[in-house]
Structures are given as structure tokens and as C-alpha cells.
Please model this.
Amino acid sequence: MPKMDFPDFEGSDPKVWLDNCRDYFDLYQIPEGMWVTAARMHLKGKAGKWYQAFKQKNTFRSWTHFCGVIEQEFGSDDFRSSMQDLLALKQTGSIDEYTEQFQAL
Model:
């Protein structure tokens, strides 16, 4: 099996990152007890700085708890900004271009 790097997280698209983490854990058959530790080690940039402050008074109880905290901290505006982007979307080119932009949102 080819070696694949664990995905880093800098604070954007937390749901995508968490899905990529699960795929990595499944692919390499990482025991669930190691998931939080492995993921924590790959918090970089803004997310890494946030974690340095977070860990002073908090711990993660489980993978589910970790996911919830990450999504709450870094994904709270996902729905709102996506709705704003959808409402602002205007067709300026072909229908294919519009459809592609719509599906991306």
C-alpha cells in the first residue's frame, strides 16, 4: 500500500478534514483509542494556536467529542456563509457554469 500523509488542519472545512481523518484511520486500521491523539498532532496554524489555549483547561473525552468541538469552533459559520453564497449566486455565464457553481456551493 502506498504511504499516505495524515491530513493537516489549519481551520477551514472541518467536516472535510474530519472525513479525511476517518478515511485515513480506516485505511491504516488505526485503533479508535489513538484517533484523537493522531488528529491533534496535525492541528496547524490557526487550529494549532486554538488547541494550545483549549488544552489548558479542557480535554477531549472521545472521537465524537473531538469532532463536535472542532466543528463548533471552526465550522459554526459554514451553514450561514453557504446560504449567503447561494443567495448571492447569479447566472452570468452559461447554464453549465452556473450549475457547476451551484453544485460547488
User: Anything to note?
Assistant: The CA atoms of residues 39 and 47 lie 11 Å apart. The mean pLDDT is 90. The chain is about 60% helix and 0% strand.
